[in-house]
Each structure stands twice: as structure tokens, then as C-alpha cells.
Amino acid sequence: MANFAEIDENGLVLRVVRTNDSLPEKGLEWLEKNFGGTWIETFEDGSQRVRFASKGFSYDSDRDAFITPKYFDSWILNEETLSYEAPVPYPEDGKDYDWDEEDQTWVEIPD
User: pTM value?
Assistant: First the structure.
């Protein structure tokens, strides 16, 4: 079995499907024949392309990696993890927080 992410012309992951074929190239051939589009193999263990793709992720062909969504305009791509992160580190005090984009701060969620 193999997993493939369908991506649009901008690299946005539209969906992820699992094929029943034991050879990935057979699954890719079937997807292209029956659905068209552009498909990139994705690996559950993250052994290739950094992480397993999910709908809403993007595929960066230069890095050959799936990148997590950018949830807020102010967030910055961490070049080591290829994940977007807030410009201010998440507090490590055991409490729950939400990001406030306007003030660019973490706001504690009341109990």
C-alpha cells in the first residue's frame, strides 16, 4: 500500500489517498489514469518529504517537502522543521493559550 497527496498548481494538498497496490508506481499510475491531476507520494513515518501530507498542507518541490499550513500572516517558516511558528514562543508554563494575531501575543485560555 502507498499513500499519495493530490496537489494543485500552487502545491496545495487537496486530498490524500491510499492505494491498494503493493508497488507505489502502480498506485500512481492508477490515480493519474482515473483522476488526473498531480500526485506526490507521502510517507506515514515521515521518512521522506519531512512529514505525512494532510489536506491544507503545501508541497514545496524545491525542498521536496510537505509544509504545514500558515495559520496566521505573522507566523514564520522554521527552515529546520519546515513548520510555521509564531514570532513569539509558546509559553511553557503548562497553561493553554490561543494566538492573538492583532497583538501578536499568546493569550491564556481561562479554565
Answer: 0.83
